[in-house]
Amino acid sequence: MRIILNLGITEHTGHGVPTIVSNYGKDVFSISDTFLKCTIPFNKLVTEYIRTQNVGMNVVLNKTEQKILELLIEDPKQTAENLSKRINSTIRTAERTLKSLQEKNYLTRIGSRRDGHWIVKR
After folding, report:
1. Are residues 67 and 106 in the same domain?
2. CATH code for the domain in which residue 81 is found
3. What is the domain extent for residue 35?
């Protein structure tokens, strides 16, 4: 019943079932000898809004991205060339990875290419 409490449909006083019945009708409940099942329909507009709000929240980083982040935490002034040497890859791979991390909102570049540095956001 915790989910019903978390959804704000009920409170601790036990008025949840009447509230659910008044909002959704009795058909949302199915009762058998061993369990009570309550199926509350979701509003499609709400689920679409939630889906758009979660974009980018659960982004998974690959090993190269993780390693570059670790190296930039150690020394934010590293260049793509230095990073490529440290991860044993090409400069282009390091540049693509840096761009990917910026697009995923993990990195920001402050300053110029020559005198700038990286800020790891997460």
Report:
1. yes
2. 1.10.10.10
3. 2-41
Distance CA(24)–CA(53), nearest Å, equals 26
| pLDDT interval class at 54 (50, 70, 90) | low
Does residue 30 sit in the same domain as residue 68?
Answer: no
* Residues listed for the chain: 122
Residue 41 is classified by DSSP as P
Residues 13 and 25 sit within 8 Å (Cβ to Cβ) = no
Q: How many CB atoms lie within 10 A of CB 80?
A: 19
Supply the mean pLDDT for the chain. Answer: 83
Euclidean distance between CA atoms 9 and 6, whole angstroms? 8
Overall number of domains in the chain:
2
pTM over 0.90: no
Q: 76 with 116, same domain?
A: yes
Q: Tens of pLDDT along 86-118?
A: 999 999 999 999 999 999 889 999 998 888 999
